[in-house]
Design goal:
The complex is a heterodimer of chains A (112) and B (110).
Chain A lengths: L3 E4 L2 E4 L5 E7 L5 E7 L5 E8 L5 E2 L10 E5 L2 E6 L8 E9 L2 E4 L3 E5 L1
Parallel strand pairs in A: 2-11
Antiparallel strand pairs in A: 1-3, 3-8, 4-5, 4-9, 5-6, 7-8, 9-10, 9-11
Chain B lengths: L3 E4 L2 E5 L4 E7 L7 E6 L6 E6 L5 E4 L2 E6 L4 E6 L8 E9 L2 E4 L3 E6 L1
Parallel strand pairs in B: 2-11
Antiparallel strand pairs in B: 1-3, 3-8, 4-5, 4-9, 6-7, 7-8, 9-10, 9-11
Classes of the chains: A mainly beta (112), B mainly beta (110).
């Protein structure tokens, strides 16, 4: 199974600012994913990030709000732009390996 | 059609008892059904998974039962332990994307 790390583990941000979350995988993977999890809730897929192509966003999520980079096969970033309190959530990245998704520990974001 | 329905929302089981969590799906394009365990402050961790050509899979105290015709699958935790107390998510994967159930918060009392 892949080992995935995320930075930062948590942050408190002001309304209107942006935060970039980093995700590092310990092996090369083709597909990486970004999820949002509201406290006590299930996971919702934001987008799929493939190396060498534009990220594919799910309904309700747009590139201007959640730009994603995927510069190589082990790394991806998610930016939460122009934040509002409604963006307070846990953001998780995952990678697909052997047909299974493995998750990072998450980034807990609080927007004031 | 993309939903995965999970029940119960919460579950309290005595130590040594059997915990049972149920899920149902609609989309027949799903081809992989994992269960994830999540502890507070942690990311979901893969627990056990099954493909639709198998009716049951067992790994230690954890068993998945899969009913393809009914489009239902369930997780059984035998001899439940306090350390099993966590939130459990079923999921269904199609075209390499996961759709998660709503989660079940399990509490195993000592």
């Amino acid at each position: 199974s892949a080992v995935i790390s995320q930075k930062p583990s948590r942050d408190i941000c002001q309304r209107g600012t942006s935060l970039t979350i980093q995700c590092q995988v310990d092996s090369q993977v083709t597909m990486m994913f970004w999820y949002r999890q509201q406290p006590g809730q299930s996971l919702t897929l934001i987008a799929t990030a493939n190396q060498g192509s534009e990220a594919t966003y799910e309904s309700g999520f747009v590139i201007d709000k959640f730009p994603i980079s995927r510069p190589n096969l082990t790394f991806s970033t998610l930016t939460v732009s122009n934040m509002s309190p409604e963006d307070s959530s846990i953001y998780l990245c995952s990678s697909l390996g052997g047909g299974t998704q493995y998750f990072g520990p998450g980034t807990r974001l609080t927007v004031l | 059609q993309q939903q995965v329905k999970q029940s119960p929302q919460s579950l309290i089981v005595q130590k040594g008892g059997i915990s049972i969590i149920n899920c149902a799906y609609e989309n027949t394009a799903f081809d992989y059904f994992p269960w994830y365990q999540q502890f507070p402050g942690k990311g979901p961790a893969l627990l056990i998974a099954i493909r639709p050509d198998v009716s049951e899979k067992k790994e230690g105290r954890f068993t998945i039962s899969f009913n393809k015709s009914a489009k239902q699958f369930s997780l059984h935790i035998m001899d439940s332990q306090p350390g099993d107390s966590a939130t459990y998510f079923c999921a269904a994967q199609g075209f390499q994307k996961l759709v998660f159930g709503t989660g079940t918060r399990l509490l195993v009392s000592p």
